[in-house]
Amino acid sequence: MSPTSNDVIGNEQLNKSEQRPYKRVLLKLSGEVLVGDGAFGIDTDTINRLAAELIEVQQSGIELAIVIGGGNIFRGMSGTASGMDRASADYMGMLATMMNSIALQDAIERQGATVRVISALHIKEIAEPYIRRRAVRHLEKGRILVFAAGTGNPYFTTDTAASLRAMEIQADAVLKGTKVDGVYTADPKIDPSAQRYDTLTFTEALSKRLGVMDATAMSLCRDNHMPIVVFDVTTPGQMLKAISGEVVGTLVQES
Ligand code: GTP
User: Fold this and answer.
1) Is 204 in the pocket of ligand 1 (CB under 6 A)?
2) 3-state secondary structure 168-220
3) Domain of 216?
4) For the chain, how many structural domains are there in total?
5) Residue 49 lies in a domain
6) pLDDT, tens digit, for every residue of 10-50?
7) Is the CB of 128 under 6 A from ligand 1?
């Protein structure tokens, strides 16, 4: 049966045996989710709500590492578009992720949970340097981890940082929390007939340029058998559902 408008494409429902039991996840948050209803920066209510949800996930026994973008403060790509040197713009983007990471750490700590910020750039007065084995140890001790400064290299996005760190810490999945509730055939804000995918293969996502993540990040996940779940992090409760393996958003995996 061909899908109709607003249908979900792919598996209608995954049965119990196909549910996704994650023990350790890498959550990629776009910086934009911190903006809330504003246009720029960090909205206090929004970051507090997010922190409460992250703590709920941590307390459910899931080992949680987070990579956060910086687009709510500075976008490397926009800087480049306005004539900046790409490397300089990307370094500014990395510093923006550092600001978001510190804000998230602060919001989590104020609600009583333990969290460590680990930076790919050496800013040791602010955050621990990235040492893979130490990061894993923090997770084993039940601390929430926030990876700041992307990969520490220009020309790589925070999506790629998320994929890389997910591989390094041997996460079970990358959870991509965005403002959209999954991957669509077209931009649902522009095309009302756009349909959401329930499941998708990496090959399909790459060949159709569906914008799950950039191609470098997607290829890394595909080549290392790392599933990606795209879900709406702005709707309260979705994060725990996605991380608990409930069918929300779009699951991208090998066929
Ligand atoms: P354990 O060794 O498992 O006990 O981990 P821990 O993080 O509790 O202990 P540690 O003594 O390594 O760190 C204590 C505090 O200092 C934590 O809040 C760390 O995040 C922080 N910290 C550790 N190393 C650095 C660093 O190089 N720079 C900064 N800014 N903070 C650091």
Assistant:
1) no
2) HCCCCEEEEEECCCCEECCCCCCCCCCCEECEEEHHHHHHCCCCCCCHHHHHH
3) 22-252
4) 1
5) yes
6) 444 344 334 447 999 999 999 999 998 888 999 999 999 99
7) yes
